Target: Histidine triad nucleotide-binding protein
Amino acid sequence: MTLFEKIIAREIPATIAHEDEHCIAIHDIDPQAPVHLLVIPKRVITRVGEAQQTDANLLGHLLLTAGQLARALGLAEGFRIVINNGPHGGEAVPHLHVHLLGGRPLTWPPG
Model:
């Protein structure tokens, strides 16, 4: 069971910003920007590189939810959405999740 599955099951505490039937959004415990949320599907998809066509609606829901949260948090100046894939992509938890970052100017390239 991944860390995120334990958070979804309420076995590990987290600061929840949003929850619906498909996903949960929590505040990152090591924020890289003033706003740093993780939008996590309740159904486990290990990583975006392993997603299937049957996951399309859920993947779209995650992005739409991130956009709604950005608007609700007043990130009109801009924000970044990041999905890490695999060890070289910065993936720390093998459970797909969307990082929503904002609240300060974000540079490019990211790292």
Summary: The chain has two helices and five strands.
